[in-house]
Specification:
This protein is mainly alpha-helical. Helices cover 69% and strands 0% of the residues. It has helices spanning 2-20, 29-33, 38-58, 75-93, 104-127, 129-143, 148-169.
């Protein structure tokens, strides 16, 4: 009788283990370490830690120079942190079925994009938004083999349009830099 009552429980546990891709209790330690989902779970834990820290930091926001508005300065960053935390939990609970590393070419492009984004942040204050955004768009476009004749006017036009929207419609002043702005 006792064996019959344990059978549904074992099926339930096996179902949970398969659904969440958890190692079985009888697995040895080396097989747990070589779990193909371990990378996703570690990334999920790191992202969850960052999300918790980010939401905790938003609690310290005060009224900014842009004003607080009807919702306040904490709302959007808190929502971003919560959504980031939800995606981190998803990575922990449901990792990728067939994880594989990106090729060297893809990783190299990601490194360059991060570098260009860092350069954008460094140029934003001294050179202004329009110049920094135009330079970033052109560099990334050239890196992805975009035609330079189209990149320059489109990048400049997009930067000017964004600056106009932020400065005039949203009334959020972007850095004008050395040449002025709107």
């Amino acid at each position: 009788m006792k064996e019959q009552s344990q059978a549904p429980r074992q099926r339930w546990l096996i179902g949970l283990q398969r659904r969440f891709r958890l190692p079985r209790p009888d697995d040895s330690l080396p097989s747990r370490i070589s779990d193909k989902h371990l990378g996703d779970r570690i990334l999920g834990l790191v992202c969850l830690t960052i999300a918790i820290w980010y939401v905790a930091e938003t609690r310290n926001f005060q009224i900014t120079q842009f004003g607080s508005g009807p919702v306040g300065p904490k709302t959007l960053p808190t929502l971003v942190g919560i959504v980031f935390g939800i995606f981190a939990l998803y990575l922990i609970i449901r990792p990728d079925e067939s994880p594989r590393w990106a090729s060297f070419n893809v990783r190299w492009r990601l490194v360059v994009i991060v570098g260009v984004s860092f350069l954008f942040g460094q140029l934003l204050e001294p050179m202004g938004f329009i110049f920094a955004a135009t330079a970033m768009s052109i560099l990334i476009g050239v890196f992805f083999d975009g035609p330079l004749a189209k990149l320059v006017p489109l990048s400049f036009g997009f930067a000017v349009a964004l600056a106009f929207v932020f400065n005039n419609w949203l009334e959020l002043r972007l850095p004008a830099g050395w040449w002025g702005g709107f």
